[in-house]
Amino acid sequence: MHRMDLTVITTHINADFDAVASMLAAQKIYPDAKVVFPGSQEKNLRNFFVSSMAYLFNMLDIKDVELDRINRLVLVDTRQPHRIGKLSDLLQREGVEIHIYDHHPNKSNDIKGDYEVLRLTGATVTILAGIIAEKKIAISPDEATIMCLGLYEDTGSFTFPSTTQEDFKAAAFLLSKGANLNIVANLLSREISPEQVSLLNEMIQAATRYTISGIEVVVTVVTTDKFVPDFAFLVHKMVKMENLEAIFAIALMDNKIYITALSLVIEVDAAAILEEFGGGGHTYAAAATVKGKTIAQVEHILVDLLYKNIQSRRLARDLMSAPAITVAAGVSCREAGDLLTRYNINALLVTNAGGGHESSGPPVGFITRQVIEKALFHKLDHVAVSEYMSS
User: Fold this and answer.
1) Which of 64, 149, 160, 165 has CB 3.0 to 4.6 Å from 156, enough for a Cys bridge?
2) Is the pLDDT of residue 230 over 70?
3) pLDDT tens digit string along 169-198?
């Protein structure tokens, strides 16, 4: 019988830099654990490991993992069972503790942990770096650099709307431990291959613009015979080049359908929309891989979801008091002040109609409670509102 004495740290399939940085940080908190990738990593991540800092990880290949030995599974940057590969077999196994560190919003099918640290930070590594700082765990400059790499990538170098104060604090801590920003900058600045340039051009040419609830949303659909890496990076590029508010990019590559979504407006919740395809992510960025449907079906379903899920922007008419209360230009400041008090409002439309407190003539300006109160304070209550109105 196997001894159950193994702690495994893992993350999601298609691991990005934040996932890797979080696994390294978790390894500092669980020093006897093995780090296991559940599946593939992004291409630029594979290149990074070939050429640099893989020696820092106490790594075990997924093929060599003896599941019967695992008594603790530490999940970072995910709570989705379908994103951890065959390690999901451990979730219902008796005697296996589940520890979770994640920054994604809650979903109905989230894995429930025996121990959870869940915060809506810009990156999961922020949470773990905070624990390392609190526990005064020593880290090397190389380790700080990898953690910083994940932090910078997942916050868009602190430009994504999900970035929090905690992310800046984590960066300050990692810099104090010797993180090398030159390495971070070099690894995050990617050269675009000819295949990527061609695909990006196709994405721009294929873009369809929809105006939904007053918000412009771009949907682009492309097809290529072979897999082109870093599709999400190309979507980011397109957002910057075309100055888009929200984009949903669908790509059929190597007989698989991928969707990447980016949103810079709160009315478009990328994660909620792609959840319908089994995807995940954040309000501002999400991704999904779709099986069992044609690309035309995926596009049709997606557009339908956009119309159902995108919230209307709040307009001035949604917030204003109605009907508008007006006052004739010849009315005194004292009488205007009485109107403001009676209706419990802070501004009046001023019309050029003669006579009467309230008037339906054409507007010529407005006057606020602040102006009226100043007039009354200076004993100018008899002066007509037309003398002090804004027009």
Assistant:
1) 160
2) yes
3) 999 999 999 999 998 998 887 778 899 999
Q: Is 207 exposed, middle or buried (0-12, 13-18, 19+ CB in 10 A)?
A: middle
Q: What letter represents residue 254's amino acid?
A: D
Beta partners for residue 41, in sequence order: 15
190 Cβ neighbours under 8 A, 6+ residues apart: 44, 230, 233
State if pTM tops 0.85: no
pLDDT digits (tens, 9 = 90+) for 282-293: 888 899 989 889
| Residue 198 token pair | 């061609």
Look up residue 102 and give its DSSP letter.
E
C-alpha span between 128 and 23 (Å, rounded): 9
Q: Which residues pair with 115 in a beta bridge?
A: 99
**Which domains are seen in the chain, by residue range?**
6-188 (3.90.1640.10), 198-309 (3.10.310.30), 320-387 (3.10.580.10)
Beta bridge partner(s), residue 54: none
